[in-house]
Amino acid sequence: MSVQSVFPQLEPLLPRVSKPVQYVGGELNATVKEWDSTTVRWALMYPDAYEVGLPNQGVMILYEVLNEIADVLAERTYAVWPDLEKLMREHGVPQFTVDGHRPLGAFDMLGVSFSTELGYTNMLTALDLAGIPLLAADRTEDHPVVLAGGHSAFNPEPIADYIDAAVLGDGEEAVIEISDIIRAWKAEGRPGGRDELLTRMAETGGVYVPRFYDFTYRPDGHIDTVGPNRPRVPETIAKRTTMDLDAWPYPKKPLVPLAESVHERMSVEIFRGCTRGCRFCQAGMITRPVRERSIEGIGAMIQTGLEASGFEEVGLLSLSSADHSEIGEITKQLADRYEGTNTGLSLPSTRVDAFNIDLANELSRNGRRSGLTFAPEGGSERIRKVINKMVSEEDLIKTVSAAYAQGWRQVKLYFMCGLPTETDDDVLQIAEMAKNVIRAGRVASGRKDIRCTVSIGGFVPKPHTPFQWAAQCDPDTVDSRLRKLREAVNSDRDRSIGRNIGMRYHDGKPSIIEGLLSRGDRRVGRVIEAVWRAGGRFDGWSEHFSYERWTTAAAAELEPLGVSLDWFTTRERTEEEVLPWDHLDSGLEKNWLWDDWQDALDEREQDDCRWTPCFDCGVCPAMGTDIEIGPTGRKLLPISPVGVGSPVRNPVLSAP
Amino acid sequence: MQKIRLRYAKRGRLRFTSHRDVARAFERALRRAGVPMAYSQGFNPHPKISWIGAAPTGVASEAEYVEVSLVERVDPARLAQVLDAALAPGLDVLEAVEAGPGGLAERMEASDWHIELPGVAPADLRGAVEQLLATEHVEVERLTKDGRRLIDARPAVVRAVVLEGPVGSSAEDGSGSPETEDTPIDDDAPSRVGVDMSYPERSCGILRVVVRQTTPAVRPDDVLSALRVVAALEPPVPAKATRLAQGRLDDDGGLSDPLALDRQAGLG
User: Fold this and answer.
1) Fold for domain B2-106+257-267?
2) Residues A409, A441: Cα–Cα separation, whole Å
3) Per-residue pLDDT at A351
4) How far is it, in rounded angstroms, from Cα A460 to Cα A515?
5) Would you tell me how many other CB atoms lie within 10 Å of the CB of residue A515?
6) A80: left (phi over 0), alpha (psi -120 to 50) or beta
7) What is the CATH number of the domain that holds A162?
8) Exposed e or buried b for every residue in A480-509, given b needs 16+ CB within 10 A?
9) Whether residue A257 has pLDDT greater than 50
10) A353 pLDDT tier (thresholds 50, 70, 90)
11) Structural domain for A216, as ranges
């Protein structure tokens, strides 16, 4: 039976909501297939506002990969703002996709990509609006299989009761295999119903189905055991790794929204994974090993992407972009190719030590010159050893001085507060560093109007990192350190220095809730549902987040079980403790992580395995993978500029 | 250096775009189409594009105008063709001419609006419009970024008539938008699927109103607010407005084509 668009019901509501254009779809390069011409149908959700979700690379890649398969259909859906949610409830309009405006309940799969745990309540809103039972146990063969992905899927236990399955790691190949399983199961006449479908996914070893695993708890609240509760289901679930990035040049045609989004540019992932070994960084731990895209692969993706999108800026994306083995050649040759076309290049994350100003100058040659951003992460040399961020203040001063001397006016520095072993003094050193940056910058540039912005995030211990055992810093301590830091920034006798330093930070409360959701187990699920029932939505947005709603729900739901918000967050774990994600295999040896945690406490640093011998983190042998890096020594073609005023040359216009 | 003036339409669900959305879509389409755009100088170069007014968010239009500067000469008709192909369906380039002497903005004296009011009986609408025209000043409230402000919506209204017709019949005019009828619009565009089918066709009142460009601008919403003020007219569902034409007012309340002068200069 064909599925009808709900747009006729939605349309009269749109003049009554803010930014209606985000709900109409019609993005350039979007795909709308005939429902009846396909067998396997996916709805892909990014559980945040459209403006945040649309540029998400993960969703964009899977959307294109799936739609390239003839009998597979994929459409996208995003969280609707409370104004539209209210109207949809009043008028009985279900959660819809923005492509075909089809109701979510009609799809086979609902894939939800979680970059952050603060999107959990938004998933519940979408399920509820779609008429899909919140609890996986209540769903029937007629409901979509709800599948979680993204970094948060490395510990999906807090949402285990609400999802049917989770995939850890890279999704490109996983979604194709899952589609194959659904297609075969449907062709056979759906034997064994939903249970059999999920079992077939689980027995691949790469799809986690939480309900096939049982946890038992000790009287003191700790996990006693975890394991499968039926045959055909593996003990542990392995993450997925896509090895050859050049074989997966997605997105080929980036989605270009009509509405404004948070990233007004196209992105090309220049490598995946990072082995710098920053101990706080979950992304760097769970995406190993490093796999580079070749310079030619990057060049081809950029040209087709610009032709298909018309963007004025290209982001060279990765966890530490200046670390690509041929980053100098890439930026120089791209700058040559796009000379005169007003096409800017940007590196969203750069390390001080991997960066040089030539690179920055190439990046801004044909486009806009925005600020430069560096991430020392810790204010003192000592704390940088604890977190394994090997940057000296001297390096930083040298780099920013060169930047200011070259005409850059603004430098942004990222730090974290609440790190393990941190003292007030470690945080106060951020002020000293920022002031030294301004002093050195004034000398280098010969001007007084340069600026330095200090941006500070609260540290949240994450699963599968050496800090997974650490006690999270309580919000009062974080807030008090940030207050002292602000005073220190403004305390200099030379008041003009403080005026050139901007400070950006949030209070520590959302971080503690993120901490609960990051390292929580299945018992935390009822807290999420209680918060959602009390009106919790868009928890990643300060104007919607309510700390009190979370603490109230946590007290009511957790304390009767002998655990608490503090138990899950500010409590340090022991080596023996069974962690909620021990059965989920990121490849990292738990022993290695523990040793790295001990090294952190001893302020001992760890090198990068790209340039030093393997230090046995465990990933490559466990996953059958290896580091894939250049240099290739190859060149981008063409090397001459491609157009005038546009990166595209149109023969129709230049013809006489 | 060449300057091209374009007339374009904003149709169907694309009417929910804001002016900024349209501007971004144009800049990107110009790049995709390989148009040799001129850019401003400096640290943050911008393409040289001048926008002449803009229909508000939620309002469709058959008569929007923009001026683009190029670094190489191109044939305006070809530009219109490649740019239209590069733009999303619903943002449709209708005409391109090389700029002649004189500014374009000052040729925009007034707008001709077509406003569909599903669920409003034409007789009721006619009564309300008569009351409006009989009133000299009508203060309406408008929400702006800085809060509420009052504007007098009445003096800008040059002419207003009520038509009858089924929902979605925005093409009944003939006063300068001949393309409307035969330009294909995607099948599930709102004007095809309708606003709310529960209202019988005969109870859709249509207001045609010519409004003078003033500061602050009086928009279709303000005209409807004025009808609420003078006659307590409350449409049960949101109205659908379309700008049919912009131009200089002639003596009998019609609008002259703002690109006519450029077209003449091009021929001569």
Assistant:
1) Alpha-Beta Plaits (3.30.70)
2) 9
3) 67
4) 5
5) 25
6) beta
7) 3.40.50.280
8) ebbebbbebbeebeeeebbebbebebeebb
9) yes
10) low
11) 7-235
Q: How many CB pairs under 8 A join A and B?
A: 130
pLDDT averaged over every residue in chain A: 94
Residue with tokens 């059958």: A624
Please check whether residue A231 lies inside any domain of the structure: yes
Determine the pLDDT at residue B185.
Answer: 38
pLDDT in tens, A7-45: 999 999 999 999 999 999 999 999 999 999 999 999 999
Does pTM surpass 0.90? yes
pLDDT at B167 over 80: no
**What was the ipTM of the complex prediction?**
0.90
Q: A322, A325, A315: which is closest to A355 by C-alpha?
A: A322
Please provide the size of chain B in residues.
268
Query: What's the gap in Å between the CA of B251 and the closest CA on chain A?
Result: 36
Do B58 and A15 count as a contact with CB atoms less than 8 A apart? yes
Residue A194 domain flag: yes
Coil vs helix vs strand at A507 = coil
**Total domains in the fold of chain A:** 1
- In sequence order, which residues have a C-beta less than 8 Å from that of residue A413 and are 6 or more positions away? A373, A374, A375, A376, A433, A434, A437, A452, A453, A454, A455
Of the CA atoms within 13 Å of residue A514, those in its CB half-sphere come to 27
Number of neighbours of residue A337 by Cβ within 10 angstroms: 22
State whether A7 and B70 contact (CB < 8 Å): no
Helices (H), A534-589: 547-558, 565-569
Q: How far apart are CA A406 and CA A622, in angstroms?
A: 46
Of B22, B24, B49, which to mutate for an interface test with A (greatest number of A Cβ within 10 Å)? B24
Q: Provide the shortest C-alpha distance from residue A216 to chain B (in Å).
A: 53
Which residues have C-beta within 8 Å of that of residue A160, sequence separation ≥ 6? Answer: A210, A211, A522, A525
Of B58, B82, B195, the CB nearest to A653: B82
Read off the pLDDT of residues A595-631 as tens digits, 9 standing for 90 and up: 999 999 999 999 999 989 999 999 999 999 999 998 9
Residue A445, domain member (yes or no): no
pLDDT beyond 80 at A270: yes
Q: Is the pLDDT of residue A254 over 90?
A: yes
B43 Cβ contact partners less than 8 Å away, ≥ 6 residues apart: A368, A369
Residue A425 has pLDDT above 90, yes or no: yes
Q: How far is B249 from chain A (nearest CA, A)?
A: 30
* Helix H or strand E encompassing A599: helix A590-601
What are the chain B neighbours of A5 within 8 Å (beta carbons)?
188, 193
Bigger pLDDT: A651 or B110?
B110
For B58, nearest residue in chain A (alpha carbons): A15
Confidence bin at B189 (pLDDT 50/70/90): very low
Nearest to A4 by CA among A108, A77, A102: A102
Q: Check: CB of residue A383 under 8 Å from CB of residue A421.
A: yes
Interface test with B, best of A406, A646, A654 (most B CBs within 10 A): A646
Partner residue facing B34 (CB), from A8, A12, A650: A650
Domain boundaries, chain B: 2-106+257-267, 108-250
> Distance between CA B242 and CA B227 in Å, rounded?
18
Is residue B73 less than 8 Å (CB to CB) from chain A?
no
Exposure letters A82-106 (e unless 16+ CB within 10 A, then b): eebbebbeeeebbbbbbbbbbbbbb
Side chain identity at residue A72, one-letter code: V
The answer to whether residue A421 is domain-embedded is no
Strands (E) across A294-383 are located at 313-317, 344-346, 372-377
